């Protein structure tokens, strides 16, 4: 089980936590949404919960609830700026398909889709 960060993503996480003045990590999640089925959730974690898995990459930390781990396994997270927009972008081997707007996606394993 692994989640890695590019240097840009790690830098952004560190900067945002410093700017907030609190927090220990970027929290990743997934929810049912959009035309393809799922969307990523982003938040900042002020503490690591008992049901969280903590990952550290390039000096930044990411937490994921244990029941969402299989959705993120093998993912690399980057931080990109395109024009006036900036966002975390995933390279996730668990994604089967994305919608045309890029906001939602479907997963390869249908069993996991039903668990959320």
Automatic annotation (TrEMBL):
Q: Which NCBIfam families match?
A: iron-sulfur cluster assembly accessory protein
Write down what this protein is called: Iron-sulfur cluster assembly protein
Annotated SUPFAM superfamilies:
HesB-like domain
In terms of PROSITE patterns, this protein maps to:
HESB
> Domain Core: where?
1-103
Task: Please give the Gene Ontology molecular function terms for this protein.
Answer: 2 iron, 2 sulfur cluster binding
Q: Name one Pfam family in it.
A: Fe-S_biosyn
Q: Name one GO cellular component term.
A: cytosol
To which protein family does this belong? Belongs to the HesB/IscA family.
GO biological process annotation, one example: iron-sulfur cluster assembly
Organism in which the protein naturally occurs = Nitrosomonas halophila
């Amino acid at each position: 089980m692994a989640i890695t960060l590019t240097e840009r993503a790690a830098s952004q996480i560190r900067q945002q936590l410093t700017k907030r003045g609190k927090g220990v990590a970027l929290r990743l999640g997934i929810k049912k949404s959009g035309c393809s089925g799922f969307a990523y959730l982003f938040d900042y974690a002020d503490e690591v919960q008992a049901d969280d898995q903590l990952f550290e990459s390039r000096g930044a930390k990411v937490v994921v609830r244990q029941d969402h781990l299989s959705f993120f396994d093998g993912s690399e997270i980057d931080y990109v700026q395109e024009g006036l927009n900036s966002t975390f972008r995933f390279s996730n081997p668990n994604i089967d398909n994305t919608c045309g707007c890029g906001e939602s996606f479907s997963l390869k394993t249908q069993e996991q889709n039903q668990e959320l």
